[in-house]
Write a structure and sequence with these properties.
The chain is mainly alpha-helical. It has one domain (3-79). 45% of the residues lie in helices and 5% in strands. It is built from four helices and two strands. It has helices at residues 3-9, 29-38, 43-57, 65-68, and strands at 70-71, 74-75. Strands 1-2 form a two-stranded antiparallel sheet. Helix 1 (3-9) packs across helix 3 and helix 2 (29-38) packs across helix 3 (43-57). It is globular.
Length: 80
């Protein structure tokens, strides 16, 4: 797993669909599950959705918490 992809989950927005504009990390599990059943889009977006699905399905979304929490006035993603 590439740590940069984790940072993208908390900064990249869903570009289309019912949850357009919502951070990928904030997409509901049932929506991610739908993509898992029907097929993820191609390219980077599909990879990020698949990663988020795996994190959600395996109850590992807490791994994203440090990337969301300010650290001395800066987000951890700002330091990358």
């Amino acid at each position: 797993m590439n740590p940069d992809h984790l940072a993208l989950l908390v900064s990249r927005e869903m570009p289309f669909g019912k949850y357009k504009g919502r951070l990928i990390a904030d997409l509901p599990g049932h929506y991610l599950g739908w993509f898992a059943r029907e097929g993820f889009p191609s390219g980077e977006l599909g990879g990020l959705l698949a990663l988020m699905y795996e994190l959600d399905h395996n109850a590992l979304t807490h791994l994203l918490d440090p990337l969301r929490t300010p650290c001395n006035g800066r987000r951890v993603t700002d330091a990358m």
